[in-house]
Structures are given as structure tokens and as C-alpha cells.
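Homework help board

Subject: predicted structure for assignment chain

Our instructor gave us this sequence and asked us to write out the predicted structure in C-alpha cell form, then describe one feature. I got the C-alpha cells but I'm not sure how to describe them. Can anyone check?
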Amino acid sequence: MIETVPEPTTGPTTPDTHTPTTDTHHTLDVDALLAWGAAHRTPAVRTLAERASKALTGLAERRERQDAVHAAQRRVIDAELLLAQAQRDLRAAKAGTPTVPTASTNACPAVPDPDPAQRREEGRRARVWAAANKVACPDRGVVPKGVLVGYRRANEGEIVGVVR
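My C-alpha cell output:
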């Protein structure tokens, strides 16, 4: 629902006016309103309808571009995390340290502090997730804890290379 507008309850019905109803309010139907404006006999109303249509088309195009950018950012972040994990595995293999945890570890091992690169990557992924899920998150600075918690819960089992 975009807007609630009072509707006239009496008056003549012409092709240029709304059909009177007994309701005092109705939901604004954008497509119907644009069609009505485009078919209106007054040039000023037709011009308004044309401008509104162009504005809505522009908004839709911007939203599509933004969604495409967010999807591409997510793919880049996923690839960067996968690369970072592969590089850690390579370094561990060269050093001769195991890359798989041993069976002797506790059920609840101590969570090591992630390195700064991992924090940045998780922050970037959390921002992309927040934007895709319409969660408020600043573009810069510290990612709020609530956003990180929501991101981690939503992506449990999918996060590669991020130590929690």
C-alpha cells in the first residue's frame, strides 16, 4: 500500500474521473493511476503521468542494478574467502601441520581470535547479507554485533574460512 486517499462519494462519473464509491479510502493502484493519467484529456495530467512513469522506471532500473551489484559482491567475497582458505591450507601443507582438526579436540573448543583479514571478509559478507535482507547496516566502520549475529545464524555451515 502506497498511500490512502479519500475518495469522493458523490458526483458524476466521466472517463476522466474515478468511479464514486461508498468507501471513504482506497489503496492507490499505481498501474491504474498511470493508465488513467495517460488516457486523461488534460495535457498537464498526461505529462504528470508520463513523468511518474519515467521516475518509476528509473527507480526499478536502479534497484535491479543495485541487486546485481550486491550479488556480484557476494560472489567476489565468496571467491576471496575460498582463496584465503586454500592459501591457508597450502601454507599448512607446506609446514606439515594438519588441516583437519584431530579427534582429541573438545566438543566445545576455544574459539581463537580471527585475524584482521578474516574479520574484514566477514564484515564485508555481513554487509552484503544485510543489504540483501534489508537489515540496517552502515556502509563503513564497525559492523553492528546484531548484524553479525544475524548473518552468522543465517549462514551457519556455509561460512568458509571464517573463524568464530
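Reply (TA_rk): Your C-alpha cells look well-formed. For the description, you could write something like this. The two ends are 41 Å apart (CA to CA). That's the kind of observation they're looking for.
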